Protein backbone atom coordinates (compact mmCIF):
# COMPACT_ATOMS: atom_id res chain seq x y z
CA UNK A 1 0.00 0.00 0.00
CA UNK A 2 1.44 3.43 -0.88
CA UNK A 3 2.58 5.52 2.05
CA UNK A 4 0.12 8.40 1.86
CA UNK A 5 1.45 9.86 5.10
CA UNK A 6 4.84 10.32 3.46
CA UNK A 7 3.12 11.75 0.40
CA UNK A 8 1.36 14.31 2.53
CA UNK A 9 4.59 15.21 4.30
CA UNK A 10 6.36 15.78 1.01
CA UNK A 11 3.51 17.85 -0.32
CA UNK A 12 3.35 19.94 2.83
CA UNK A 13 6.92 21.11 2.20
CA UNK A 14 5.25 23.43 -0.30
CA UNK A 15 1.66 23.62 0.91
CA UNK A 16 -1.06 24.48 -1.52
CA UNK A 17 -2.31 27.97 -0.66
CA UNK A 18 -6.02 28.53 -0.31
CA UNK A 19 -8.90 26.41 0.90
CA UNK A 20 -9.09 22.93 -0.57
CA UNK A 21 -12.73 22.04 -1.06
CA UNK A 22 -12.58 18.88 -3.12
CA UNK A 23 -10.36 17.09 -5.66
CA UNK A 24 -10.73 16.73 -9.40
CA UNK A 25 -9.85 13.08 -9.80
CA UNK A 26 -7.48 11.99 -12.54
CA UNK A 27 -8.79 8.44 -12.76
CA UNK A 28 -12.20 6.93 -13.26
CA UNK A 29 -12.45 5.46 -9.79
CA UNK A 30 -15.04 7.23 -7.64
CA UNK A 31 -13.30 8.30 -4.44
CA UNK A 32 -14.75 10.28 -1.52
CA UNK A 33 -13.21 11.36 1.79
CA UNK A 34 -15.22 11.39 5.00
CA UNK A 35 -13.82 13.83 7.56
CA UNK A 36 -14.73 14.18 11.23
CA UNK A 37 -14.00 17.18 13.42
CA UNK A 38 -13.21 16.97 17.12
CA UNK A 39 -14.05 20.54 18.16
CA UNK A 40 -13.66 21.83 21.70
CA UNK A 41 -13.29 25.30 23.13
CA UNK A 42 -11.03 25.94 26.12
CA UNK A 43 -13.99 26.32 28.46
CA UNK A 44 -15.60 22.93 27.93
CA UNK A 45 -15.20 19.21 27.49
CA UNK A 46 -17.08 18.25 24.34
CA UNK A 47 -17.20 14.49 23.92
CA UNK A 48 -16.23 11.38 22.00
CA UNK A 49 -18.77 9.76 19.70
CA UNK A 50 -17.93 6.09 20.09
CA UNK A 51 -20.59 5.05 17.57
CA UNK A 52 -18.75 6.94 14.83
CA UNK A 53 -15.43 5.21 15.47
CA UNK A 54 -17.07 1.80 16.03
CA UNK A 55 -18.77 2.12 12.63
CA UNK A 56 -15.62 3.26 10.83
CA UNK A 57 -13.69 0.33 12.29
CA UNK A 58 -16.42 -2.26 11.77
CA UNK A 59 -16.82 -1.23 8.13
CA UNK A 60 -13.07 -0.61 7.66
CA UNK A 61 -13.56 2.94 6.44
CA UNK A 62 -10.44 5.12 6.26
CA UNK A 63 -11.17 8.63 7.49
CA UNK A 64 -9.48 11.91 8.29
CA UNK A 65 -9.95 13.23 11.82
CA UNK A 66 -9.39 16.92 12.57
CA UNK A 67 -8.59 17.18 16.27
CA UNK A 68 -8.58 20.29 18.39
CA UNK A 69 -5.59 20.63 20.71
CA UNK A 70 -7.84 21.19 23.72
CA UNK A 71 -9.91 18.14 22.76
CA UNK A 72 -6.72 16.07 22.55
CA UNK A 73 -5.70 17.06 26.08
CA UNK A 74 -9.10 16.26 27.60
CA UNK A 75 -9.35 12.99 25.65
CA UNK A 76 -5.76 11.78 25.88
CA UNK A 77 -6.68 8.09 25.75
CA UNK A 78 -8.98 8.52 22.78
CA UNK A 79 -6.53 10.59 20.76
CA UNK A 80 -3.96 7.87 21.37
CA UNK A 81 -6.33 5.22 20.01
CA UNK A 82 -7.12 7.30 16.95
CA UNK A 83 -3.45 8.06 16.23
CA UNK A 84 -2.51 4.38 16.52
CA UNK A 85 -5.22 3.18 14.17
CA UNK A 86 -3.92 2.99 10.59
CA UNK A 87 -7.46 3.58 9.30
CA UNK A 88 -7.25 7.18 10.41
CA UNK A 89 -5.12 10.18 9.60
CA UNK A 90 -4.99 13.07 12.03
CA UNK A 91 -5.23 16.74 11.16
CA UNK A 92 -5.13 19.95 13.18
CA UNK A 93 -8.36 21.79 14.13
CA UNK A 94 -6.81 24.66 16.16
CA UNK A 95 -6.29 24.73 19.90
CA UNK A 96 -9.64 26.04 21.13
CA UNK A 97 -11.88 26.18 18.08
CA UNK A 98 -11.29 29.88 17.62
CA UNK A 99 -12.58 31.94 14.75
CA UNK A 100 -9.20 32.69 13.20
CA UNK A 101 -10.61 35.66 11.29
CA UNK A 102 -10.67 37.43 14.66
CA UNK A 103 -7.29 36.29 15.99
CA UNK A 104 -4.37 38.69 16.47
CA UNK A 105 -0.95 37.39 15.35
CA UNK A 106 -0.05 35.93 18.76
CA UNK A 107 -3.35 34.10 19.08
CA UNK A 108 -3.15 32.96 15.48
CA UNK A 109 0.25 31.38 16.09
CA UNK A 110 -0.95 29.71 19.28
CA UNK A 111 -4.13 28.32 17.71
CA UNK A 112 -2.22 26.90 14.73
CA UNK A 113 0.90 25.60 16.48
CA UNK A 114 -0.18 24.56 19.99
CA UNK A 115 -2.23 21.57 18.80
CA UNK A 116 0.92 20.06 17.33
CA UNK A 117 2.48 19.88 20.80
CA UNK A 118 -0.75 18.41 22.18
CA UNK A 119 -0.84 15.73 19.48
CA UNK A 120 2.88 14.91 19.68
CA UNK A 121 2.72 12.26 22.45
CA UNK A 122 -0.06 10.37 20.66
CA UNK A 123 1.81 10.56 17.38
CA UNK A 124 5.07 9.35 18.96
CA UNK A 125 3.35 6.40 20.63
CA UNK A 126 1.57 5.59 17.38
CA UNK A 127 4.80 5.65 15.40
CA UNK A 128 6.34 3.18 17.83
CA UNK A 129 3.27 0.97 17.63
CA UNK A 130 3.19 0.98 13.87
CA UNK A 131 6.88 0.15 13.64
CA UNK A 132 6.24 -2.86 15.86
CA UNK A 133 3.21 -3.81 13.76
CA UNK A 134 5.22 -3.57 10.58
CA UNK A 135 7.52 -6.29 11.88
CA UNK A 136 4.59 -8.60 12.43
CA UNK A 137 3.97 -11.21 9.73
CA UNK A 138 0.27 -10.48 10.14
CA UNK A 139 0.69 -6.82 9.32
CA UNK A 140 -1.16 -5.66 6.24
CA UNK A 141 -0.72 -1.94 6.66
CA UNK A 142 2.53 -0.23 7.47
CA UNK A 143 1.49 3.32 6.74
CA UNK A 144 3.62 5.67 8.70
CA UNK A 145 2.26 7.82 11.49
CA UNK A 146 3.42 11.31 10.44
CA UNK A 147 5.37 13.29 13.01
CA UNK A 148 3.21 16.36 12.54
CA UNK A 149 0.01 17.51 10.90
CA UNK A 150 0.02 18.33 7.21
CA UNK A 151 -3.72 18.93 7.09
CA UNK A 152 -5.61 21.68 8.89
CA UNK A 153 -9.27 22.64 9.13
CA UNK A 154 -10.51 26.11 9.97
CA UNK A 155 -13.21 26.19 12.66
CA UNK A 156 -16.56 27.56 11.49
CA UNK A 157 -15.25 27.35 7.92
CA UNK A 158 -13.88 30.85 8.52
CA UNK A 159 -10.50 32.20 7.47
CA UNK A 160 -8.81 35.30 6.09
CA UNK A 161 -5.50 35.94 4.34
CA UNK A 162 -3.51 36.21 7.57
CA UNK A 163 -4.94 32.98 8.94
CA UNK A 164 -4.33 31.14 5.68
CA UNK A 165 -0.72 32.39 5.61
CA UNK A 166 -0.18 31.17 9.18
CA UNK A 167 -1.51 27.71 8.33
CA UNK A 168 0.46 27.38 5.10
CA UNK A 169 3.54 28.83 6.78
CA UNK A 170 3.35 26.04 9.34
CA UNK A 171 3.47 23.47 6.54
CA UNK A 172 -0.22 22.64 6.57
CA UNK A 173 -2.90 22.73 3.90
CA UNK A 174 -6.39 24.00 4.66
CA UNK A 175 -8.85 21.19 4.06
CA UNK A 176 -12.39 22.49 4.06
CA UNK A 177 -15.27 20.65 2.35
CA UNK A 178 -17.70 20.66 -0.53
CA UNK A 179 -20.34 18.59 1.25
CA UNK A 180 -21.66 19.50 4.67
CA UNK A 181 -23.65 16.76 6.37
CA UNK A 182 -25.30 19.38 8.58
CA UNK A 183 -24.73 17.11 11.59
CA UNK A 184 -23.96 19.82 14.21
CA UNK A 185 -27.62 20.77 14.17
CA UNK A 186 -29.76 18.86 16.64
CA UNK A 187 -32.59 19.50 14.19
CA UNK A 188 -30.92 17.32 11.55
CA UNK A 189 -32.31 13.80 11.90
CA UNK A 190 -30.31 10.79 10.76
CA UNK A 191 -32.53 10.70 7.67
CA UNK A 192 -31.76 14.34 6.91
CA UNK A 193 -28.01 13.80 7.36
CA UNK A 194 -28.08 10.83 4.99
CA UNK A 195 -30.07 12.79 2.42
CA UNK A 196 -27.92 15.92 2.64
CA UNK A 197 -24.71 13.93 2.31
CA UNK A 198 -25.82 11.75 -0.58
CA UNK A 199 -27.33 14.71 -2.43
CA UNK A 200 -24.03 16.59 -2.29
CA UNK A 201 -21.42 13.92 -2.89
CA UNK A 202 -19.73 13.56 -6.24
CA UNK A 203 -16.43 11.89 -7.11
CA UNK A 204 -13.61 13.72 -5.31
CA UNK A 205 -15.85 15.17 -2.57
CA UNK A 206 -14.72 15.99 0.95
CA UNK A 207 -17.56 15.47 3.45
CA UNK A 208 -17.79 17.34 6.77
CA UNK A 209 -19.05 15.46 9.84
CA UNK A 210 -18.37 15.58 13.58
CA UNK A 211 -17.25 12.97 16.10
CA UNK A 212 -17.20 15.06 19.29
CA UNK A 213 -20.75 14.23 20.29
CA UNK A 214 -22.06 17.33 18.55
CA UNK A 215 -22.88 15.48 15.47
CA UNK A 216 -26.11 14.75 17.23
CA UNK A 217 -27.31 12.01 14.89
CA UNK A 218 -24.05 11.23 13.11
CA UNK A 219 -23.69 7.85 14.78
CA UNK A 220 -27.01 6.57 13.47
CA UNK A 221 -26.63 8.16 10.04
CA UNK A 222 -23.07 7.05 9.35
CA UNK A 223 -23.63 3.33 8.62
CA UNK A 224 -26.30 4.27 6.10
CA UNK A 225 -24.10 6.92 4.49
CA UNK A 226 -21.24 4.44 4.11
CA UNK A 227 -23.42 1.65 2.74
CA UNK A 228 -25.16 3.98 0.29
CA UNK A 229 -21.90 5.45 -0.98
CA UNK A 230 -20.41 2.00 -1.48
CA UNK A 231 -23.57 0.86 -3.25
CA UNK A 232 -23.08 3.79 -5.64
CA UNK A 233 -19.57 2.56 -6.37
CA UNK A 234 -17.58 4.95 -4.19
CA UNK A 235 -14.39 3.99 -2.41
CA UNK A 236 -13.88 5.79 0.87
CA UNK A 237 -10.38 7.17 1.39
CA UNK A 238 -8.48 9.60 3.59
CA UNK A 239 -7.95 13.19 2.46
CA UNK A 240 -4.28 12.45 1.75
CA UNK A 241 -5.28 9.56 -0.49
CA UNK A 242 -7.80 11.80 -2.23
CA UNK A 243 -5.17 14.52 -2.77
CA UNK A 244 -2.81 11.94 -4.25
CA UNK A 245 -5.46 10.91 -6.78
CA UNK A 246 -6.08 14.22 -8.51
CA UNK A 247 -5.86 18.00 -8.57
CA UNK A 248 -7.18 19.89 -5.55
CA UNK A 249 -9.99 22.35 -6.16
CA UNK A 250 -8.92 25.45 -4.28
CA UNK A 251 -10.76 28.63 -3.35
CA UNK A 252 -9.21 31.86 -2.23
CA UNK A 253 -11.24 32.04 0.94
CA UNK A 254 -13.13 29.70 3.25
CA UNK A 255 -16.87 29.19 3.34
CA UNK A 256 -19.55 26.61 3.91
CA UNK A 257 -21.72 26.55 0.79
CA UNK A 258 -20.90 29.91 -0.81
CA UNK A 259 -18.32 32.67 -0.27
CA UNK A 260 -19.11 34.92 2.68
CA UNK A 261 -21.58 32.60 4.37
CA UNK A 262 -19.36 31.97 7.39
CA UNK A 263 -18.49 35.64 7.94
CA UNK A 264 -21.51 35.82 10.25
CA UNK A 265 -19.47 34.03 12.90
CA UNK A 266 -17.39 37.20 13.27
CA UNK A 267 -20.20 38.61 15.40
CA UNK A 268 -21.63 35.35 16.70
CA UNK A 269 -19.49 35.17 19.84
CA UNK A 270 -20.29 38.72 20.90
CA UNK A 271 -23.94 38.00 21.42
CA UNK A 272 -25.32 36.78 24.76
CA UNK A 273 -24.51 33.19 25.69
CA UNK A 274 -26.65 30.71 23.83
CA UNK A 275 -27.65 27.14 24.40
CA UNK A 276 -25.80 24.27 22.81
CA UNK A 277 -28.56 24.01 20.24
CA UNK A 278 -27.17 27.09 18.58
CA UNK A 279 -23.70 25.60 18.04
CA UNK A 280 -22.83 26.86 14.59
CA UNK A 281 -24.22 24.65 11.94
CA UNK A 282 -23.36 24.24 8.33
CA UNK A 283 -25.80 24.44 5.52
CA UNK A 284 -27.25 20.95 5.09
CA UNK A 285 -27.75 21.35 1.37
CA UNK A 286 -24.72 23.08 -0.08
CA UNK A 287 -25.05 24.57 -3.49
CA UNK A 288 -22.42 25.00 -6.14
CA UNK A 289 -19.99 27.80 -5.48
CA UNK A 290 -17.31 29.39 -7.64
CA UNK A 291 -14.20 27.28 -7.56
CA UNK A 292 -10.87 27.20 -9.23
CA UNK A 293 -8.63 24.25 -9.80
CA UNK A 294 -5.02 24.29 -8.72
CA UNK A 295 -3.12 26.56 -6.44
CA UNK A 296 -4.45 30.02 -5.73
CA UNK A 297 -2.67 32.58 -3.63
CA UNK A 298 -5.03 34.23 -1.18
CA UNK A 299 -5.25 37.91 -2.04
CA UNK A 300 -8.15 38.80 0.12
CA UNK A 301 -7.45 41.99 2.09
CA UNK A 302 -7.19 41.78 5.83
CA UNK A 303 -10.64 42.30 7.23
CA UNK A 304 -11.48 44.95 9.77
CA UNK A 305 -11.70 42.96 12.92
CA UNK A 306 -13.33 43.70 16.21
CA UNK A 307 -12.44 42.36 19.62
CA UNK A 308 -12.03 38.60 20.00
CA UNK A 309 -15.23 36.62 20.31
CA UNK A 310 -16.23 35.49 23.74
CA UNK A 311 -16.22 31.79 24.57
CA UNK A 312 -19.12 29.77 23.31
ZN1 LIG B 1 -14.98 22.36 14.49
Automatic annotation (TrEMBL):
Residues 30-237 form the NodB homology domain. GO terms for molecular function: hydrolase activity, acting on carbon-nitrogen (but not peptide) bonds. This is Chitooligosaccharide deacetylase. The lineage of its organism: Bacteria, Pseudomonadati, Pseudomonadota, Alphaproteobacteria, Hyphomicrobiales. Is involved in generating a small heat-stable compound (Nod), an acylated oligomer of N-acetylglucosamine, that stimulates mitosis in various plant protoplasts. Residues 266-312 are annotated as: Disordered. It comes from Methyloraptor flagellatus. Gene3D superfamilies: Glycoside hydrolase/deacetylase. It holds the Pfam family Polysacc_deac_1. Belongs to the polysaccharide deacetylase family. One of its GO terms (biological process) is carbohydrate metabolic process. InterPro entries: Glyco_hydro/deAcase_b/a-brl (IPR011330), NODB_dom (IPR002509), Polysacc_deacetylase_ArnD (IPR050248). Residues 275-295 have a biased composition (Polar residues).
